[in-house]
């Protein structure tokens, strides 16, 4: 099994995606997580591009150990000087230099002849070699260059001391068989190819970045350049999590492995998504919201009997905290009864029939039935209150200046008592959360909020997913509402109720409520 080096360029090529700009501090935090995850090389930025990028590369070089730090540069002395200076304190470092090689780039962008391009490549690699032993060279747009000139350029930079040859599919043009065959031809025909390492860098314009990278591995490359969540120019780069899990799952067929700690994949994905404000598509492989969730009754039945029936990866090994069963109109009795039992309730056959009919009616009117709604339906079936706390009403005062003020009325189902609490905050969600927290006899931390639009137009509904932490454990609540602030408020209340139930407080309060009602 060959070890494939994972070269992460999230902080350089990934950040070049429109709107993905990161602050230097965000880059440092993500670089720490990438090192924790086990990447082999980090390309932290483009030092010549801005003082902030230079400072981020410099600090990451000083702080992050155990990985190789790569300085990125055009084949220009000023770029090389900046990259060398920014990475001078790195424990291990390399210089990554690129120069266009295709005719369309040389003719219309650089306006250089092929002879001039070869001379530039030779001169700049030789210049960089004075400062750095490990030099990676990328002939940009290699897949549209043509063999003869590509071979000539690669031979020239190897002769001047390049140690890693990266052959990029810069515009995502290649097909997998073409890309793999290109590496084979280079390795067989370029003088000095036996003295260098080979790397693949693929863009995803045709959705083939992962497939092309796997083809390159089959052809013998020892390094693949990736980004977290596949972020990057245009349609993005080869997705780290997809490539890693393809090798993890089909390693025997590929004859290759990586050193990535898969349990960190989800945490890294979420960190980059939030820092860049780039939401992850629900159907994104490996880390998407639906990647390990199932609504169809046939699938749910198979999963409950043996998870391997419909899942080829274990989400827990990726750090994915998702429930595999999602209840909706396609769900069957088996999955519904299973979820009800997970909530600590056993229904009689008669109660189950009443509950099932109510469930199907609700499921026909919305996409997904969430746990707090299940608890309400269960309560109707067994004639008792199931949730310890109910958000009765919320009033919010907001404006263009000053703090927001929220008035939240909460009912304790154990006592039947309703109390109103006032919370303030710089934002409306902060104010509502502050108000609800006052009603709880335990401390919770508001950890995360996701908001999604469920439809379009003025009558659109919003879905909120709120994660809270209590005593080190995480709990998630989901709610939908025409008012997105109410969706967030109900989702927060649902998460807090879940925290109370799993601590045993919910059952105790439900029993007290039943006594009171009786």
From TrEMBL:
Domain Pyruvate carboxyltransferase: 4-266
Any Gene Ontology biological process: L-leucine biosynthetic process
Keyword Ion transport set for record: no
One MF term in the entry's GO annotations: metal ion binding
Listed Gene3D superfamilies: 1.10.238.260, 3.30.160.270, Aldolase class I (3.20.20.70)
EC identifiers of the protein: 2.3.3.13
Pathway assignment: Amino-acid biosynthesis; L-leucine biosynthesis; L-leucine from 3-methyl-2-oxobutanoate: step 1/4
Record keywords: Amino-acid biosynthesis, Branched-chain amino acid biosynthesis, Leucine biosynthesis, Manganese, Metal-binding, Transferase
Keyword Metal-binding: yes
Family indicated by similarity: Belongs to the alpha-IPM synthase/homocitrate synthase family. LeuA type 1 subfamily.
The protein's name: 2-isopropylmalate synthase
The species this protein was found in: Paenibacillus mucilaginosus 3016
Upper lineage: Bacteria, Bacillati, Bacillota, Bacilli, Bacillales
């Amino acid at each position: 099994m060959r070890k494939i080096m994972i070269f992460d360029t999230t902080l350089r090529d990934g950040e070049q995606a429109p709107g993905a700009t990161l602050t230097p501090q965000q880059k440092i935090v993500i670089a720490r997580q990438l090192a924790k995850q086990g990447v082999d090389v980090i390309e932290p930025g483009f030092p010549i591009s801005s003082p902030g990028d230079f400072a981020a590369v410099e600090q990451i070089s000083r702080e992050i150990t155990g990985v190789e730090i790569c300085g990125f540069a055009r084949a220009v002395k000023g770029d090389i000087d900046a990259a060398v200076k920014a990475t001078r304190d790195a424990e291990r470092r390399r210089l990554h230099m690129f120069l266009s090689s295709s005719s369309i780039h040389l003719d219309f962008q650089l306006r250089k002849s092929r002879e001039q391009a070869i001379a530039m490549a030779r001169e700049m690699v030789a210049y960089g070699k004075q400062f750095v032993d490990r030099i990676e060279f990328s002939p940009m747009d290699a897949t549209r260059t043509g063999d003869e000139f590509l071979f000539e350029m690669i031979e020239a930079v190897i002769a001047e001391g390049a140690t890693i040859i990266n052959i990029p599919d810069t515009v995502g043009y290649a097909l997998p068989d073409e890309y793999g065959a290109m590496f084979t031809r280079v390795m067989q025909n370029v003088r000095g190819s036996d003295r260098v390492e080979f790397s693949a860098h693929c863009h995803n314009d045709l959705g083939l970045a992962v497939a092309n990278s796997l083809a390159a591995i089959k052809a013998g490359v020892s390094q693949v350049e990736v980004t977290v969540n596949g972020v990057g120019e245009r349609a993005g780069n080869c997705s780290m999590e997809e490539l890693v899990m393809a090798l993890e799952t089909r390693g025997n067929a590929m004859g290759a492995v990586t050193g990535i700690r898969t349990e960190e994949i989800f945490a890294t994905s979420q960190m980059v998504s939030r820092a860049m404000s780039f939401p992850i598509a629900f159907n994104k492989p490996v880390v998407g919201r639906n990647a390990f969730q199932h609504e169809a009754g046939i699938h749910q039945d198979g999963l409950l009997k043996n998870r391997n029936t419909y899942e080829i990866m274990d989400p827990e090994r990726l750090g994915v905290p998702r429930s595999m069963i999602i209840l909706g109109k396609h769900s069957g009795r088996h999955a519904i009864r299973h979820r009800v039992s997970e909530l600590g309730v056993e229904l009689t056959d008669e109660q189950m029939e009443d509950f099932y009919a109510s469930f199907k009616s609700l499921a026909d009117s919305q996409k997904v039935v969430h746990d707090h709604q299940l608890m309400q339906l269960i309560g109707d079936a067994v004639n008792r209150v199931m949730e310890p706390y109910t958000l009765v009403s919320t009033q919010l005062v907001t404006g263009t200046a000053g703090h927001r003020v929220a008035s939240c009325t909460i009912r304790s189902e154990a006592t039947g008592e309703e109390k109103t609490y006032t919370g303030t905050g710089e934002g409306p969600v902060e104010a509502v959360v502050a108000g609800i927290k006052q009603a709880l006899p335990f401390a919770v931390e508001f950890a995360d909020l996701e908001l999604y639009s469920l439809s379009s137009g003025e009558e659109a509904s919003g879905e909120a997913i709120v994660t809270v932490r209590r005593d080190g454990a995480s709990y998630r609540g989901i709610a939908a509402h025409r008012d997105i602030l109410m969706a967030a408020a109900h989702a927060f209340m649902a998460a807090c109720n879940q925290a109370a139930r799993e601590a045993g407080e919910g059952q105790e309060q439900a029993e007290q409520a039943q006594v009171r009602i009786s």
